[in-house]
Design brief:
This protein has about 80 residues and is an alpha+beta fold. The chain has a domain at about 25-65. The chain contains two helices and two strands. Strands 1-2 form a two-stranded antiparallel sheet.
Length: about 80
């Protein structure tokens, strides 16, 4: 397990196990936590990659942009 933080770049890096432990709470809290887990998953890289592997990107309401290093994205400024 390791943790690195670079305050200059503003990046963090963590490697290690992820552990899920059910929390105790009221039914309303349980529902709220489940909704937040679903929201987090739906916006995650794992969700996107699973949709790509299943050839299901458009049906999952996801999209990707075709980017070439030779093209500047719309609204991009070089400083």
């Amino acid at each position: 397990m390791s943790f690195e933080f670079d305050p200059i770049k503003g990046t963090m890096y963590y490697t290690g196990p992820s552990v899920f432990e059910p929390m105790s709470g009221t039914e309303a809290q349980q529902t709220a936590w489940e909704n937040k887990r679903v929201d987090a998953y739906n916006g995650s890289m794992m969700s996107f990659l699973r949709a790509c592997l299943a050839n299901n990107v458009s049906r999952a309401n996801l999209r990707y942009l075709n980017y070439s290093e030779h093209q500047q994205p719309v609204g991009h400024r070089t400083v």
